[in-house]
Amino acid sequence: MTELSILTDTTSWREGAEQRRLAAYRRAGFAAPAAEASVARWLERSAGATVAEVRAGGRPVGAVAVVADGDEGRIEELWIDPAHAGAGHGEAARGWAERWCAEHGTTSCGIQLFAPEPLFDAYPVRGQNRVKFIGTPAALPDGVTYRPMTETEYPAWRRAEDEAYVFDIVRAGGLTREQAQEKSDADFARLLPQGRRTPGHAFVVLEAEERTIGTGWLHHGFLPGVTYGYSLFIEEHERGNGYGRAAMAIGEQAAVAAGDTALMFNVFGGNEVAMNLYTSAGFGVLFEYRSVELGG
């Protein structure tokens, strides 16, 4: 029989979770500084998690940690000792987490997975984090170039980026349009407090044969040695001409020029075209975010 009890002292769980998460980043190919910086952010984010110890036969066999973030509930970790896997403890812990999220007013329960986990196969994929470690950056097709975005171009780009972000969130599922707009407003305020002049952020315009074909938003040094691509966008009427792959190459070249050796992106669930493009361009899945809506 599986039992769960909330821990008052989460120190032991936090230390173990930190090491497990570090190991996941190192397996993915991250250097120690980038892995440690990413885990430090996660530790800060999960500081207020409620943690339940999973027990069987009076002995601890795992743990599950949960948080409520507005309408979204999140499983920060569900870990079962491999020696006790397959005995139903994971299912019991997942059920407890879903009930906890519902009881705390959230409408969904989500989790970040660094490897396939059958326990969450029924949770739809809401997004993937992709990464590529760059040796020699991909070459640009003939006639394709990029340049810094101007001050006058930025406001229109910002409005379009907000609309696209809201659309992607809603398409991925789990949030209404109103909730997606609230998330977009909060995320842009957090990420770009100084707008175009926010340190570390670069905004570029992609051109082919002297016409604009797209835009890009990159955060150099997002992690030590890692550039994060918040957006590499190709105008709809320019798609189908190989410019999506060119945008990836521009991201790689810009990352290396800034002194980084890896490029990361997020792709929302439901965007199969982007997922296929990332795979073909050599971007592997670092982790998936999956969530399920809670009802009743």
Automatic annotation (TrEMBL):
Signal peptide start-end: none
Keyword annotations from UniProtKB, A to Z: Acyltransferase, Transferase
Listed PROSITE patterns: GNAT
Keyword match Acyltransferase: yes
A Pfam family this chain is assigned to: Acetyltransf_1
Ranges for domain N-acetyltransferase: 8-147, 144-296
SUPFAM superfamilies: Acyl-CoA N-acyltransferases (Nat)
Tree of life domain: Bacteria
PANTHER family in the record: AMINOALKYLPHOSPHONATE N-ACETYLTRANSFERASE-RELATED, AMINOALKYLPHOSPHONATE N-ACETYLTRANSFERASE-RELATED-RELATED
Protein name: N-acetyltransferase domain-containing protein
